[in-house]
Fold this protein.
Amino acid sequence: MTTWQPDADETLLARCGVGFATGVATPVSGMRWFRDTERRDIQDELPGWPAGQRFAPRTKTERRLRDGRKFGARFLLVATLGVLESLAGSGSTGNVARLGQPEEPENEVEDFPVMWAASGTLARTLPWQLDPGRRPDIERTHMVVTDRRVLVLGLLDDKDEPNDEVLWETPRSNVAAAQRMQFSQYEVDFKLVFVDGSWCRLAGWNTNCRDDVTRFLATPPELVAREALTAGQRQTIAKFLKRQGQDRIGDLLITRRPSGHFRAEYLRTDLIDPDYGISSDVCLMGANGETVNYEQGDL
């Protein structure tokens, strides 16, 4: 089994399942494009990329027909749920995912580029395996963030034999910004902007994947050594590690967040899920090890 490991002088911050995002607005639902800064389709210019599906935004007539079918399906669903609730007699039996307002209508409703890259820019070097429409069903892609690098790994959908392969990497300093996109079904989309102005729109396997990746790319992490903790914080960490169990195999990561709180994470590096990546247990504490409420910047 080949499992990727950080270098000896490198700290693993996150490893999560990601891929190129998919449009959700009616004109571009289920679609994605790879564009240059003139909005030309560049997928045929990307070196080593296999042929992929070509999309065209839906016309107004197609949108009306699609919305009509959705309305009919929703009407049937609501009627069915009403019957079920009457029979069950206890609250709602379903939850419909809601979208926020488009932040970039030109890139979320009228078009849906997941790569925006002039010739010679970094986004053009991203691997084709990030594209769900090109990647074989038996394969997955993970994004790894360390204190030095950002990597994309390819692996098999096999918990016992993932066979990690490094598909792409770049220094952490090449990422200028990481933005969580609000107009996103299930709150999984995020954008990485590189220092050369190119960008990509990706989707985590779930919201936690998105948050774990962007947390350490939006703001450079301030790593804290255990010996630098206060006495109260060390006691909290001791209890935190005890609840992981005696047979635990993982990495303790402590960072000071922009809010001033201390976030301790126990990365379960011995359990790599092909879909999710590496999960973690989290403890948020104050300067004396006390429990604190989450504030902006902690997540």
